[in-house]
Write a structure and sequence with these properties.
Shape: globular
Number of helices: 1
Oligomer: single chain
């Protein structure tokens, strides 16, 4: 684990937040609130035919800024056969390029149904900061709005195969925020307890962490 750095450098931080993601019509994990399947989804549900194509830019409705951070990120790891690796859960996360605005930093996260059946999503990503040895660092990740984006809370979304939802992860540290922790990577999963991917942090300005704010998984504009 790397030593804490003094205030004055831009920082950020993370911690996992509860949410749930399960195949539609199947039982929810014990740790997640139950959602009753229905042939007609409740008001406010977002259906697959209203969702945009996978891996475009982060929807403007998640942002406060006129220029949204990109959701273009590393695609799921190809297998030896050349096909995209899809976890057994049937969903995969992605992370775009980290963008800057007036000293703030943010990155778009994606969650895509790469499986063959619908999935119901309602909650927040699970995010942790890792050190160079791959161990978690004590960096909080808050479900909250930030300078870079607005958190409107969880939204139930039924994802058909190939469809995507988004979250915005923002660095919220300030030069007067106290000691900063240096992280080497972000571990991101669709929800706590699910298969995660690790994304390296490159550049000193984004490796210095105080805390992070993230929005719930949300669908783009209909």
């Amino acid at each position: 684990m790397r030593a804490a750095l003094t205030a004055g450098a831009l920082g950020l931080s993370l911690s996992g937040c509860a949410g749930f993601l399960v195949p539609a019509g199947e039982g929810e994990p014990e740790s997640a609130p139950a959602v009753t399947p229905s042939a007609s989804y409740p008001p406010g549900s977002v259906h697959a035919d209203k969702l945009p194509s996978p891996f475009p830019s982060v929807p403007a409705e998640l942002l406060d800024r006129p220029s949204p951070p990109s959701a273009r990120g590393p695609a799921p790891t190809p297998t030896a056969s050349g096909r995209t690796h899809c976890p057994s859960s049937g969903v995969v996360v992605g992370m775009g390029e980290i963008e800057a605005a007036l000293g703030h930093r943010a990155v778009g996260l994606t969650l895509t149904n790469c499986g063959g059946k619908p999935y119901r999503v309602h909650g927040y990503p699970s995010v942790r900061v890792l050190d160079e040895a791959g161990d978690p660092l004590p960096v909080p990740v808050n479900p909250a709005s930030s300078y870079m984006g607005t958190d409107r809370g969880p939204q139930e979304v039924v994802l058909k195969p190939g469809q995507t939802v988004w979250s915005l992860l923002a660095w919220v540290s300030t030069p007067t925020g106290g000691d900063l922790v240096e992280g080497d990577a972000l571990e991101i999963a669709p929800a706590p307890g699910m298969e995660a991917r690790v994304f390296p942090l490159e550049g000193s300005d984004v490796r210095l962490l105080d805390e992070l704010n993230m929005t719930a998984w949300r669908a783009g504009p209909a």
